[in-house]
Amino acid sequence: MTLFDTHAHYTDNAFGRDRTELLGQLLPAAGVAAAVTAGVDVESSRASIALAEEYHYIYAAAGIHPEDCAGAGEAELAEIRTLCRHPKVIAVGEIGLDYYWAENPPREFQQEIFRQQLALAREEGLPAIVHDREAHGDSLAIVKEFPEVTGVFHCFSGSPEMAEELVRRGWYLGFDGPITYKNAKRAPEVAAVTPLERIVIETDAPYLSPVPNRGKRNDSRNLPYIVEKLAEWKGVTPEEMAQITFENALRLFPKARDAG
Ligand code: NI
């Protein structure tokens, strides 16, 4: 199985002890042929680029996450723009809205930073990696203000109707470990209405480990559990699902193809 993990955070401290072994040996040996490590602020975006420079199959996304956007302003956004011009930065992300945590920056401020980064994606001709937690209505409304920008809704948790609307608008949907949980009721409904060619597979490592590794640190070697679940729902073999999602990821991130 050849796998493309479209969303991970390998700069996270959770990988502080064994990052070299993991990225240098274990992931390639497990068939992980490409992985995107996404920034959540300027510093982690820079660190993501450093990993992408070190490992040929690692790509970076640069962006400011809604949980980390407090204090972000013109200087930070200008820096993200500069980082986006690096040959291995294939998307603007992780950006979006997070209304789940009460201590997050105010919603209006998150929306402003989200809009500015969608404008940046439009100007730089890059796809966006969108984080939408408990903010479906506003996330959809804001991406609709930028019809020229598409990308992926990471760990999509909206309704089947929202999935259909995003697909119509050219977006891809990311499926993560939670689709393997027993209480995942919406995920099969969302998968049913999402065309095969718009599905990508993600870990969000170190978070969101799928069953049977739920609760442990996640990494891209767990992708087959997500592939198997999606293959079952879509009526294809796991090998076909891995192949299709790999090709989808290359279409979603054109710079990943160019960067080789
Ligand atoms: Ni993430």
Please, could you describe this protein's structure?
- This protein is an alpha/beta fold.
- Helices cover 43% and strands 17% of the residues.
- It has 10 helices and 8 strands.
- It has helices spanning 19-29, 42-54, 74-84, 107-124, 136-144, 160-168, 186-193, 223-234, 238-252, 254-259; strands at residues 3-8, 32-38, 58-62, 89-98, 128-133, 151-154, 172-175, 199-201.
- Strands 1-2-3-4-5-6-7-8 form an 8-stranded parallel beta sheet.
- Helix 2 (42-54) packs parallel to helix 3, helix 4 runs parallel beside helix 5 (136-144) and helix 8 (223-234) packs across helix 9.
- 47% of the residues are buried.
- The mean pLDDT is 97.
Question: Main traits of this protein?
Answer:
alpha/beta, binds nickel (II) ion, 260 residues, 10 helices, 43% helix, 8 strands, eight-stranded parallel beta sheet
Task: Write a brief structural summary.
The chain is α/β, with parallel strands linked by helices. It is built from 10 helices and 8 strands. Helix 4 runs parallel beside helix 5 and helix 6 (160-168) runs parallel beside helix 7 (186-193).
The fraction of residues assigned to DSSP E strands is: 15-25%
Please give the order of strands in the largest beta sheet: 1-2-3-4-5-6-7-8
- The backbone outline, from C-alpha atoms, is globular
- Counted by DSSP, the helix tally is 10
Low-confidence parts lasting 5 or more residues at pLDDT below 50?
A: none
**SSE class:** alpha/beta
Order of helices and strands: EHEHEHEHEHEHEHEHHH
Query: Roughly how many Å apart are the termini?
Result: 19 Å
Major pleated sheet: 8 strands, parallel
